[in-house]
Specification:
By secondary structure, this protein is of the alpha/beta class. 41% of the residues lie in helices and 12% in strands. It contains 17 helices and 13 strands. It has a seven-stranded parallel beta sheet with strand order 3-2-1-4-5-6-7. Strand 2, helix 6 and strand 3 form a beta-alpha-beta unit. The longest helix has 39 residues. It starts with a helix and ends with a helix. About 9% of the residues have low confidence.
């Protein structure tokens, strides 16, 4: 195997072996001998000379490392697209988020595999760690564009018909410069958080929503909008869930899946701040419960106190025989193996509706100033407050026996997830069809521009 082939297949083995040049302290081209009769002036001069030599050595190392980094950077950017004609790829998934948000792409991978069979896909990343993760965990062509110039060059030598976006990252604005593709926001979930109804949605040519709930959020909360661009495609992720083994227990499996603290306080619905360790401790004391803990990947990234609580719970359950901590993977793969869930206000609770099982939801809505109502999803769950933690076991037993929200939950399920036949892949088919139709529309629009230009000449 040639070195070039090795470089393309496994760039890490080339780049990860680069180590900083070791600086040997006090290593000088000559030796300074200090004698008892040496004056303070001579000693100070010698120490100054020694300090300068160290600085020069350090500067030399830094310069060498910068040169190495610059020389390798172009290679890193070229590796994923080497010997590939990008004009053969019709669709791009653009993702500028960091590794902590990789779940936003991960949940779409199985659906994108279906689309890839009819419209070849490239995944564009802006963070090296994300590029590496996707390269080694997927079979898609993955491109790393470190700078906006890299992105510009990529778009100039490609012919993408549609570009998909799984979030509202601020660097999405850089990708929107591509004027020859249709831009489609596909999101990664539809919670009641304000980030799901941002005015940024107007930047895209189309916004795919799950069902009526997603459509209504935009219609009721945005001004000067064109509702024709909001298309219901269902939730294809629910049809392409990676399966995992059942938990090895005959106890009642309770999943606690708190959300993170959000980018700002009006989006902070994390229960960890107020429930702390109390609920998990009560579940661990009960011999009938098997506790599963799956926090949001970004938990603790903004609040050090929440980070500490999260780490304490992980440590407790790591040492507990009848529990398990899950920090990665699709949370949907867990749902069929649990008996009841405890959620915060987040999109994962909406996905859980598909299984029509009882659930609890923490009431953290007092943090949102001026809000008098609660999201519709709360009607599908029994609400609990921090003081309920002491009685959490009895509350769980009651819900498993009576399922007090069952009738209301079935209505809410239809509102959030629609009438799609998820068991037979109807949502995936709808999503793929919509993207392919958008590709055809894009071609027609470009032909129209070309025709108008020829008429003008």
């Amino acid at each position: 195997m040639s070195k070039l082939t090795k470089l393309v297949n496994n760039p890490k083995q080339f780049f990860w072996d680069v180590r900083p040049v070791r600086v040997v302290r006090n290593a000088l081209p000559f030796e300074i001998v200090m004698t008892g009769g040496e004056t303070k002036k001579t000693q100070a001069k010698s120490e100054l000379l020694l300090k300068k030599k160290k600085q020069l050595a350090k500067q030399s190392v830094v310069a060498d490392l910068v040169q190495i980094k610059n020389s390798l950077q172009s290679l890193i950017n070229d590796v994923p697209v080497s010997n590939i004609d990008l004009k053969n790829y019709q669709v791009a998934l653009y993702f500028s988020g960091g590794i902590g948000s990789i779940y936003q792409v991960e949940q779409w991978l199985s659906t994108l595999k279906v689309l890839n069979k009819q419209a070849p896909i490239v995944i564009i990343t802006r963070v090296k760690a994300v590029f590496e993760w996707l390269t080694y965990n997927t079979e898609f062509v993955v491109v790393y564009c470190r700078t906006i110039q890299d992105l510009t060059d990529l778009y100039e030598r490609s012919d993408f018909k549609c570009i998909l976006y799984a979030n509202h990252g601020y660097k999405n604005f850089q990708s929107l410069m591509n004027q020859k593709a249709l831009h489609i926001h596909i999101n990664h979930g539809e919670s009641d958080k304000t980030s799901t109804i941002t005015n940024q949605a107007k930047s895209y040519d189309y916004v795919y929503v799950v069902a009526q709930a997603g459509y209504d959020k935009y219609e009721k909360n945005l001004i000067k909008k064109d509702m024709r661009k909001y298309i219901k495609v269902g939730r294809p992720q629910l049809e392409n869930i990676p399966q995992r083994d059942k938990f090895k227990t005959d106890k009642t499996v309770v999943l606690y899946a708190p959300t993170w603290e959000g980018t700002h306080e009006s989006m902070n619905f994390s229960s960890l701040q107020e429930f702390e360790l109390s609920m998990v401790e009560q579940l661990m004391k009960n011999s009938d419960c098997f506790v599963v803990y799956k926090p949001h990947p970004n938990t603790g990234s903004r609040d050090a106190n929440i980070k500490n609580i999260n780490e304490a719970i992980i440590k407790m359950l790591d040492e507990y025989e009848h529990g398990e901590v899950i920090l990665s993977g699709d949370i949907n793969s867990i749902y069929s193996h649990v008996d009841i869930c405890v959620f915060d206000n987040s999109a994962v609770a909406i996905d859980y509706l598909k299984l029509d099982k009882p659930m609890l939801m923490t009431d953290m809505f007092h943090r949102v100033k001026g809000r008098v109502d609660k999201p519709i999803i709360t009607g599908a769950a029994r609400m609990i407050k921090p003081l309920d933690a002491i009685n959490i076991v009895s509350i769980i037993r009651e819900e498993l026996e009576l399922d007090t929200r069952k009738i209301e939950r079935q209505k809410i399920k239809q509102y959030f997830l629609g009438d799609f036949d998820y068991e037979n892949g109807e949502s995936t088919d709808t999503f793929v069809t919509q993207v392919l139709e958008a590709c055809k529309e894009r071609d027609m629009l470009l032909e129209g521009i070309a025709s108008d230009s020829s008429d003008d000449n």
